[in-house]
Amino acid sequence: MLTIRDLKKSHGGNTLFENACLQVNYGERVALVGPNGAGKSTIFSLILGRDKPDAGTIERDEWTMVGFLPQEAESVGDETVLDIATGRATEVPALEKRLHELEAAGTVDGPDYLEAHAKHEALTNPKVDAKAKRMLAGLGYRESDFERPARELSGGWVMRAHLARLLVMEPDLLMLDEPTNHLDLVSLLWLQNYLKSYSGAVLLISHDRQFMDEIIENVFEISERRLLEWKGNYSAYLEQREAAYERQSAAYKNQQKEIAALREFYDRFRQVASKASQAMSKLKQIERMELIEKPVPPRKPFRFMIPQPVRSGAKVVSLESIDMAYGQHTVYRGLSLDVERLERTVLVGPNGAGKSTLLKILAGVLEFQKGTRKLGLNTKIGYFSQHRAATLDPDKSVLQEVMDAAPTLQENEARGILGSFLFRKDDIHKKTAVLSGGEKTRLNLIKFLVDPPNLLLMDEPTTHLDIHTVESLILALEAYEGTLVFISHDVHFIRKLATKVLHVNNGTVTSYPGGYDYFLEKTGGFENERAALTA
Questions:
Q1: Are 4 and 22 in contact (CB under 8 A)?
Q2: Model confidence at 408, in pLDDT bands (50, 70, 90)?
Q3: Which of 445, 463, 465, 531 is the most exposed place for a label (fewest CB within 10 A)?
Q4: What's the pLDDT tens digit per position in 200-252?
Q5: Rounded CA gap, 163 and 157, in Å?
């Protein structure tokens, strides 16, 4: 279906990869992994023909229909959610224009025409509306949202509509760049289950470890300008890569010992007449060797000691008889809840159930109509919202933000922590106003970790983070001696941290005093996690 041979690409004088080979077969599930800036999205751009390689070839079967989901959505106008999901907004008119151009040029038997025709046929099928509605519902849309103008929605919700459009088309090769960034847990699980039975091939870039473990059967890693293939899912790849490093490291050390012994013999006896020829043979033996490269150790999550917060009272925050409504829409009525010291609580439930609302009430940033909220002794709250940009001073540099957050922190310590969260060299002097969404997320995380409150409320903290940064965050939060309440769509993150689950649905909050697997067991959800979350 897709074959890449001996690909080379440089950017700004830096070679991203060379002699890179990759193959995706029909129905295969493949992940492309590597650190930020390694060239994952560049490979996608090359496959799509939006960029040209310096060397090598990219071949696609001429009958292959390709669908691509970028990380960010295009701007929207007056089209509705359903218009986007069915392609009526821009896709169908663009395809019709392309088909007319190719027909006028007389190239109706080439791969471009075949692909455009297949996409147009999929999006003009009489059943396209019904199919699009099923996809939108799976991705968390309510029926009342289908005819809403897309401009009224956030970028994340618009991305879901574009993802629905791709699933409606059912391309032979589905290319997804961070598809879980804008999903909640319920819609992520729906997509995960959908892709398991998807008839086409999937080529995926993702920071979600559990998502890849559930779907992927083949991993290609960009490492040291090479593209390495590993069989199995993401966890299998990690195990194989570690074992391969240990083998190569041992072989390298053994060879270096052998070279040192041969060179020592040569240096010792080259001036001795009776041994000179033997010494020369040792030197030639070294020259004939196929040298083993010193392996680069796999990147590990960064560990650092975070200052521990002031100890709070046993009861950190309490809600009593809370009524909360947005206009005529009642979210909670008579809600009572206690958060105890050292609890690690995850809020789960369907989209729109009120998880973020509950987190905001706990944080004291949202007024409710009735009831009381009471903080415990010495409670100091840190609220990590989905809207991170508002918490940063646009005139300050990255380094200034961190130093101001923890005045006792030494600059070299701040630089080390920033480096572990991918702020390197001149990056630390950037003004926060020019940072990307992912950079703002990482910077806000650092600010919380260098001066942590004793009650940490986090709404989707892993969005826009790569896998290694997520692991570093997990390590930091595992060592955190405060209380944590969070929302996340990252199942691996939830499993590592949660010791209590609050299931939020239809205005009711049900407590499960155990981890995520305990919650699934009690709700009968191991066979179908999504059913447990929406029940």
A1: yes
A2: confident
A3: 531
A4: 999 999 999 999 999 999 999 998 888 999 999 999 999 999 999 999 999 99
A5: 10
Instruction: Look at residues 64, 45, 61, 63 and name the one whose alpha carbon lies nearest to residue 7.
Output: 45
State whether residue 380 is helix, strand or coil: coil
Do 478 and 496 meet the contact criterion of CB atoms below 8 Å apart?
yes
Q: Are 56 and 20 in contact (CB under 8 A)?
A: yes
Residue 342: Cβ-neighbour burial (10 angstroms; 0-12, 13-18, 19+): middle
427, with CB counted inside 10 A (0-12, 13-18, 19+), is: middle
**Residue 489: alpha-carbon gap to chain centroid:** 10
Beta bridge partners of 373: 319
Residues 6+ apart with CB under 8 A from 117: 99
Q: Is the dihedral of CA 376, 478, 177, 504 positive or negative?
A: negative
Q: Which helix (H) or strand (E) holds 484?
A: strand 483-487
First to last CA, the chain: 40
pTM of the predicted structure, to 2 decimals: 0.86
Q: What is the mean pLDDT of residues 510-530?
A: 85
Q: Is 251 left (phi over 0), alpha (psi -120 to 50) or beta?
A: alpha
Determine the Cα–Cα distance for residues 2 and 22; give it in Å rounded to an integer. 8
Whether 389 and 359 have beta carbons less than 8 Å apart is answered as no
Phi, psi values for residue 262, rounded to 5°: -65, -40
Angle between helical axes of 437-450 and 467-479 (0-180°, round to 10): 20
Between CA 434 and CA 452 the distance in angstroms is: 25
Q: What is the DSSP string of 284-330?
A: HHHHHS-PPPPPPPPP-----PPPPPPP--SEEEEEEEEEEEETTEE
Q: 88-128: per-residue pLDDT in tens?
A: 988 899 999 999 999 988 888 888 888 999 999 999 999 99
- Whether the CB-CB separation of 52 and 133 falls below 8 Å is answered with no
Strand-pair partners of 330: 325
